[in-house]
Amino acid sequence: MCTQFIKSLIPLPAFFTVSPPSDEAPAVFPVDPPAHCIRCPICGGRTHRHDRKIRRFRHGYAWHIGTLWIELAVPRQRCLGCAYTFTYDYGLGLIRYSTAAYRREIVRGCHGRALSDVASEYQLPYTTVERWFYRYAPEQAKEEKAERICVDEFAFRKGHSYATSVLNADTGSVLAVARGRDEEAIKTVLAKVKGSVKVVVSDLAPAMAKAIQATFPSAGHILDRFHIIQFFTEALKRRRRYLIEAKKHHTVRFIDRCLACEPAALTEGERAYVFRWLEEDSHLCHLYQALQHIRYVFKATTPTQAGRRLSDWMKRYQFHGCRAAAKIAKSLIVRETALLETILSPLSNGIMEGTNNKIKLIKRRGYGYRNDAHLFLRIRLETG
């Protein structure tokens, strides 16, 4: 029973015989390998042992105990044919004072944490943990096939450098990342996606539409509703100057929230404020009505209903007297096919926006990354 517990605590190949630790070294487990013929890794010939040394290796970790060590007699073999001399490690991946299983366990503990915290907890040098992580972490990055994906950009340094990422809409895992946000960068990152992609969700950037059409011509393109609504909310914010001058006792956030929310989500007092502001400014009134009208369009449930409502909205605001509403209508009319798919689809880029916030936390936790590949590896490992 004791031997079975030890083997479950420190997993080893079945042919090893594990002995209980001594009182002097309670975290050191002696391990005895069986006698067997060791072949040369170069020519496959027979070898003989010319040296044997008992060494200790880190092999596991347990709470309230610390690092678990194994004590193993490591043989030094020499080939009888080619005279090649090598150290036989019994498939444990022995490097200096640790086994491959221990190094992989440390790497698994690094997920979601700073490498410095892991190094401090396990009492290891930071450079050692960093070297192990970037050696074994790529093995743990899963390759997924996706049918529905989300595409968006995130900033390395806002206003200066950006990167584009692709996310599996079903699992939330980042599939690929590439530096840049132009059409070529988007094509590069989309080409890395495996599987038959049927639906792509993105914002309204022209480069996104061109890259998606070029890479996945048969896939449906869905626009994110939040970015469509944002056209109207940003126009209302620009008109906010009038409201600040006319109603100085209202805070900016209060005005923005009242104008951006649906009327049903406001209190009676807030609706009264909004009604008064719309009466005082016709420009603001037209923008607000266009926003509520597009929300009504998004509530369509059938293709026929969606097409009719969208056509009515475009006819009403395409040549409207309110220049801001007409400009928004002209930018949406060129994406009419994608808009119809957006109205009928439940997908959005919300999961992608949440992942972008997680990417910001990864960047801050790492205090910057010298190597883009290391950051992209972190992003793939810690999402989904």
TrEMBL record:
Pfam families: DDE_Tnp_ISL3. InterPro entries: Transpos_ISL3, Transposase_DDE. Residues 149-379 form the Transposase IS204/IS1001/IS1096/IS1165 DDE domain. Signal peptide: none annotated. NCBIfam families: transpos_ISL3. PANTHER family: TRANSPOSASE FOR INSERTION SEQUENCE ELEMENT IS1557. This is Transposase IS204/IS1001/IS1096/IS1165 DDE domain-containing protein.
